[in-house]
Design a protein that fits this description.
heterodimer, A: alpha/beta, Transcription Regulator spoIIAA, six-stranded mixed beta sheet, 3 helices, 6 strands, 39% helix, globular, B: alpha+beta, Heat Shock Protein 90, 23% strand, disordered N terminus
Chain lengths: 126, 232
């Protein structure tokens, strides 16, 4: 299937969903007014991907900011990962946060407590 | 008196005092009657009122102030201006991010409110207009918003805000996760997380007020403070 590759904008993140390597990247800012519109194609892509995923899929979340309307869409993405995980595929979600950014760490921990997928919290230099 | 500034940004530096940057969007003169003007003005003088407004903003230590339609472009401009200002003020990344996040939620609340306002004739203009201000005082930053809402929505909204204000940080975290994980969505996706998120990130009560304006309309104001000391 076709990869998704979107450049980042001031309000939307860089997206790289690559079925060949099984890596899913969201990087930058996610603060669109209409998050559902932005994330729908990504969730649809994951829906197709989950029918025949790689043995191992890594999700890299390198977000600097996200708004509350994006937070629900991120959960939709993680729920797809959870489905793949429960059907026996190896899934890891790498959650990056800048040192001292407790809010971003806490946001990752919120998802970790809701979603039954291994999360790895990775601190990076600001 | 009606102020017709579409966009005023005042740059503040703690060390250097104030200087003023006026962003050029539809500045229209204030209405006033010409009074004993000197030879140093055009006759239709409103300098006094502008000076008073300037002084008011200076004493309130306003960093940035906007009144008008909150659009997607406006949001982007305000965020970009404030991001630069916060760098110039040498705030820590932690504080800058917190302020940025709260600004995003506030501006998008205003944006979505405008989007969802039902069309009606003479009150329409009022409904679409909002005020957004950022101030800096000794404790830290304040973010103030104001907008018209239908009076019928006031009791439910106030009830929701009171419930958020009654929660401790741990309870707020649980409420956030509960609402995040619920299937409820607003038209554009947030589904009522914004205010919870603001309360959680600032660790402060949401300071709000509703003022009845007409039979059908009320003015909602929200004032949020972010302490510098807690976030260094």
């Amino acid at each position: 299937m076709e990869a998704i590759a979107l450049e980042g904008t001031p309000k939307t993140p860089k997206v790289s969903f690559d079925s060949a390597s099984g890596t899913l990247l969201l990087k930058g800012r996610s603060i669109p007014e209409n998050s559902i519109e932005f994330y729908r194609p990504l969730v649809d892509w994951l829906e197709s991907y989950s029918a025949n995923p790689r043995a191992s899929t890594v999700c890299e979340i390198q977000l600097e900011y996200f708004n509350t309307s994006s937070s629900k869409c991120l959960l939709d993405i993680f729920k797809k990962m959870e489905q793949m995980n429960s059907s026996g595929h190896e899934i890891v979600i790498n959650w990056y946060y800048e040192e001292d950014d407790e809010d971003m760490l806490e946001a990752g921990e919120d998802y970790q407590s809701i979603i039954n997928v291994p999360f790895k919290m990775i601190e990076v230099q600001g | 008196m009606q102020y017709l500034f579409s966009f005023i940004a005042v740059k503040l530096s703690r060390k250097n005092g104030f200087d003023l940057a006026l962003l050029p969007v539809n500045f229209q003169p204030l209405m006033s009657t010409p009074t004993n003007h000197s030879s140093y003005d055009s006759g239709a003088s409103n300098g006094r009122e502008i000076f008073e407004l300037y002084n008011r903003m200076e004493s309130d230590k306003i960093l940035l102030s906007f009144k008008g339609d909150v659009t997607s472009d406006l949001t982007a401009s305000v965020l970009s201006i404030m991001e630069k200002r916060l760098m110039e003020l040498n705030e820590t990344p932690k504080l800058r991010k917190k302020i940025y996040n709260v600004m995003v939620e506030c501006l998008q609340n205003l944006y979505h409110h405008i989007d969802s306002a039902p069309d009606s004739d003479d009150e329409d203009a009022k409904k679409k207009s909002a005020i957004f201000m950022i101030g800096l005082n000794n404790q830290g930053y304040s973010i103030t918003t104001g907008n018209y809402i239908d009076s019928t929505r006031v009791p439910g909204f106030a009830d929701r805000l009171n419930r958020i204000n009654a929660l401790n940080p741990e309870e707020l975290k649980e409420l956030y996760k509960e609402v995040l994980n619920s299937s409820e969505r607003s038209g554009k996706g947030g589904g009522g997380l914004g205010m919870i998120d603001i309360a959680r990130k600032t660790g402060k009560k949401l300071n709000y007020d509703f003022i009845p304006v007409t039979d059908n309309l009320s003015f909602f104001s929200l004032s949020i403070s972010i302490d510098t000391e807690d976030n260094n």
